[in-house]
């Protein structure tokens, strides 16, 4: 069946003025950009899409990327200086982090070393192999400190997939917000991840959108995403909510 039903729309046209709340653009502190040059090239790619505001979210993962507010602050300062030298006055950066919900995360929390996305919202992730056995305890500990978790790429946790997505509904009732990765809407992470992304959209469970950009290839794919009108209609309010909620960080 061809015709108007098969018409696809470029997602990039919807993203102008977006605030990217999940990316690995800070140089040299995780598996994203490895140096200033790479960071600047990625920012140029975002500029081409009309995206100029970023909340940088390097991994904080005890065994691999033991970042702290200090390491993140230093990388942010380096990048801001390089952006200034480029004369890119329109580019704005805030620093936060993407926290792996492991044992050391509870220590970071107890030591009041959390860098939230904005006010009380904290970006968290878990292993792609299994959820933390104390997931509910971690969520409760966050909330005890007046934070709310924003779960990064919920669609990528295959162990939670089910026909009715009950686990996701449960996590929402526990106060989790969900941040979908843009590239999950393509086959980038696999077909079952794409299906889960669509299922979460159909159930109206997604709160925010993020790019999770690590490298140039991700941006190239993002540039080319085309989706049916139905998906664009589902994404529009999520894009608007993301920009409205996190745009305040740049006021
Ligand atoms: Fe990430």
What does this protein structure show overall?
With 251 residues, the protein is α/β, with parallel strands linked by helices. The protein has one domain (13-250): Metal-dependent hydrolases (TIM Barrel), CATH 3.20.20. Helices cover 39% and strands 16% of the residues. The chain has helices spanning 36-48, 69-86, 103-110, 135-144, 166-173, 191-202, 216-224, 229-247; strands spanning 8-10, 19-20, 53-56, 59-60, 92-95, 98-100, 121-125, 148-152, 177-181, 208-210, 226-228. The strands form three sheets. The chain has a six-stranded parallel β-sheet. Strands 2-3-5 form a three-stranded parallel β-sheet. Helix 6 links the parallel strand 9 (177-181) and strand 10 (208-210). The longest helix is centred in the C-terminal third of the chain and has 19 residues, at 229-247. It is globular. The chain starts with 7 loop residues before the first strand and ends with a helix. The model has no long low-confidence stretch (mean pLDDT 96). Residues 22, 24, 98, 152, 212 line the site of fe (ii) ion.
The CATH architecture designation is Alpha-Beta Barrel
* Unique ligands: fe (ii) ion
Tally the helices: what do you get?
A: 8
Low-confidence sequence ranges: none
Radius of gyration: 18 Å
Order of helices and strands: EEHEEHEEHEHEHEHEHEH
What structural class should be given to the helix and strand makeup?
Answer: alpha/beta
Number of domains: 1
Largest sheet strand order: 4-6-7-8-9-10
Beta percentage is: 15-25%
Spatial shape: globular
